[in-house]
Design goal:
single chain, alpha/beta, UDP N-Acetylglucosamine Acyltransferase, domain 1, five-stranded parallel β-sheet, five-stranded mixed β-sheet, 14 strands, elongated, disordered C terminus, Transf_Hexapept/Carb_Anhydrase, Gamma carbonic anhydrase 2, Trimer_LpxA-like_sf, LbH_gamma_CA-like
Length: 181
């Protein structure tokens, strides 16, 4: 099995197999390119998915399937053995068949999708790496700096402090530069 970078394998289970026993007697590796999005509960079995392709939730790709760059397999599709899904096409159904061509906007979405999920995974990893004490401290901060309506505060004569900004790890959001202490 070969997996490239910036791959989104969804949030729930997936099954990725290398086919060793089949009618042709060939060993079929599963090869997944860069910036690929694979939806929840998808099954990839002895197939190739090129860079910047999209496999929907619950889709099944059988032995010898080849998904080209910027191609999309719809959710729930069953792609039969040795099927090639060409560049820029959407395939769906059981068995999967050509549905339509992708728009330029959809191809741009596919290119960005895996990167978005990869960044989100980093945020989740940073949150899950926090200690119990850090979590409790953030709870206290949230409570202390909970916002109320400014008009309500002014009627009571309350002036609130400005809450501190929480700084995410610098690799989470590449477009934001973290503040230094």
């Amino acid at each position: 099995m070969s997996i490239a970078s910036a791959l989104d394998l969804g949030q729930i289970s997936k099954i990725v197999h290398v086919a060793k026993s089949n009618l042709s007697g060939k060993v079929l590796p599963t090869i997944i390119g860069s910036n690929v999005t694979v939806g929840h509960s998808a099954v990839l079995h002895g197939c190739t998915v090129e860079d910047e392709a999209f496999v929907g939730m619950g889709a099944t790709l059988l032995d010898g399937v080849y998904v080209e760059k910027h191609a999309m397999v719809a959710a729930g599709a069953l792609v039969r053995q040795n099927t090639r899904i060409p560049f820029g096409e959407v395939w769906g159904g059981n068995p999967a068949k050509f549905l339509r061509k992708l728009t330029e906007e959809e191809m741009a979405f596919i290119s960005q999708s895996a990167l978005n999920y990869s960044n989100l995974a980093r945020v989740h990893a940073a949150e899950n790496a926090k200690s119990f004490d850090e979590i409790e401290f953030e709870k206290v901060l949230r409570k202390k700096f909970a916002r109320r309506d400014e008009e309500y505060d002014s009627m009571l004569g309350v002036v609130r402090e400005i809450p501190p900004e929480l700084i995410l790890p610098d690799n989470v959001l590449p477009d934001k530069v973290p503040k230094t202490a």
